[in-house]
Amino acid sequence: MTRLFEKTYLKPGAAPGHGAHASEHPHTGDATVSAWHYHHEQLSELDAQRTLRDGAGAHAGGLVWLHLQGTPSSQQLHAMGEAFGLHPLALEDVRHQGQRPKVDFFEGQLVAILRQPRHHNGSVELDQVNVFMVGERVVISVHSGEHDPFAPIRERMRSANRNFNRLGAAYLAYALMDTVIDQAFPVLEHISGRLETLEETVLDQPDRNTLNQIHILRRELLVLRRQLWPTRDVIARLMRDDLEPFTPELFPYLRDAHDHTIQIMDLLESYREMAATLIEAYMSAINQRSNDVMRVLTIIATIFIPLTFLVGIYGMNFDNPDSPWSMPELYTYYGYPVVWLVMLSVVAGMLYFFRRRGWL
User: Fold this and answer.
1) Whole-Å CA distances, 68 to 48, 130, 208, 338
2) Other beta carbons less than 10 A from residue 249's beta carbon
3) How many domains does the chain have?
4) What is the mean pLDDT of each run of 10 residues along the chain (360 residues)?
5) Cα distance between the two ends of the chain
6) Residue 143's CATH number
7) What is the pLDDT of residues 162-187, one digit of tens each?
8) Tens digits of per-residue pLDDT, 285-333?
């Protein structure tokens, strides 16, 4: 089940940027590091470890893109911070997962944090993505998940996409954020299918497992809304602030990404309403089923009320032949079959009456 709260915190009272220093945390495993150089519409792979250690100074012209897949170790963060001059607070946000999507500006640096949803073992998981733009020619991306979602961007760079060459690092940073944003659409499509399946189940055969699935889905939608809603503000701020790399020429692309965030939020709100409606439909279906059961039981009890009255009367056995108040039918030759005929006639008459009233 998707966790509502997953952020890791420093010890209260710790200094800001505490989590960025390698000496303060044990070695917990390294992220996979890759690096590329893009120049004159050509993409070439670099020595990743050397780029992480020495920065991009050795590559004149073009763009340098450093990508870390997985959660970086403290040693990697320390090396990256030293090589590219990254602010300790930005590195701390990489170290401690579960951050709210946001964008921060430091001297000559832009840092954006986004959350990418994905399906894992039948539930929704959220990976954190940190995008650094250092100056006008260096972009660093850190993706906490197991699989790299940015392979299509490298294919676009290899296919001589002129926007990367014309708009530089700002366009690459936009492309990374746009890819993360669009990853929500397949997840929402899967949720839509689950909603349709649950709706059919609620109308046909609702049970307690159905209710559990609805609650799990509502929980996932709540987590997605809480983590994806601020993404819209991130893109809006990039268009609103006077940032040198994000020129008006890039604004149409940012508006397109902003439009995608609005579509995602509209879908999320619609699905949340549908999930709430499903709970109401489930309760209505359960109540209707209970009413149907009670109606059948009431009809059966109502049918047996006059029959019980008849057999109760004739079960009293007041058979004194000298009393004028004795039951005359007790010694009737055809009394027994006549009583059965009367009871069956009562049952048939009541069933006919119930059907005419629409109760059956």
Assistant:
1) 9, 10, 44, 93
2) 12
3) 2
4) 55 57 50 90 88 76 90 90 89 86 87 90 87 90 91 88 83 94 93 91 86 90 90 89 73 93 94 91 85 84 86 74 71 80 88 79
5) 44
6) 3.30.460.20
7) 788 888 888 999 999 999 999 999 99
8) 888 888 888 888 888 888 888 888 888 877 776 666 677 777 777 777 7
Do residues 209 and 325 both lie within one domain?
no
Distance of CA 195 to the CA centre of its chain: 12
pTM of this structure: 0.77
Query: Would you say residue 53 lies in a domain?
Result: yes
Amino acid at 28: T
CB atoms near residue 118 (< 10 Å): 17
Q: Is residue 98 part of a domain?
A: yes
Contacts 24+ apart (CB under 8 A), 261-269: 261/181, 261/228, 261/231, 261/232, 261/235, 262/232, 264/181, 264/184, 264/185, 264/188, 264/228, 264/231, 265/225, 265/228, 265/229, 265/232, 267/188, 267/192, 268/188, 268/221, 268/224, 268/225, 268/228, 269/225
Residue 34's domain comprises: 18-285
Mapping DSSP to helix (H, G, I), strand (E, B) and coil, where does residue 10 land? coil
Instruction: Measure CA 314 to chain center.
Output: 68
Q: Do 121 and 268 share a domain, yes or no?
A: yes
